[in-house]
């Protein structure tokens, strides 16, 4: 089984990222379950704006799309900006939108059978709203969501402490991260054994 994390921080490497910190913790939980994991910081790649699978002219999305297609579980990790998912996260959802009309040999959307989860960090309120926005987009595209498919941390409003700066991970976040991984893994195993019916 394979899990892919698309980290949607606005910052390219090597800048530190709280979104990537939380993503790494989720991936570590998947690793404990024997899942093969990979993390991609989307800002390190030239993903063009649009809603097609391949926009040409050096568009980096086709290579990332292949990674999505090869994964059983997709994690979207995003910061909160102005109460919304990051613009990078929105771009990922827009590019995934191209696959809504693509089907497998039995007529099922390509993302049917794949499980999705979300990780959110920020220094303001809005984690539930952000995860709801991303959940709906992923579900529209065809991903399946497990119970408790989100982990998040939100600091005080207008406070300068980032998640990556914490001395230790809060127990509530560790618990949510563990639950996300266990439930997503369980659901992916079930869907692997019994796929959705063809239309």
From TrEMBL:
Domain NADPH-dependent FMN reductase-like: from-to ranges: 7-152
Stored InterPro entries: Flavoprotein-like_sf, FMN_Rdtase-like_dom
Gene3D superfamilies with a match to the protein in the record: 3.40.50.360
Highest taxon of source: Bacteria
UniProt-recorded name of the protein: Flavodoxin family protein
Lineage: Bacteria, Bacillati, Actinomycetota, Actinomycetes, Kitasatosporales
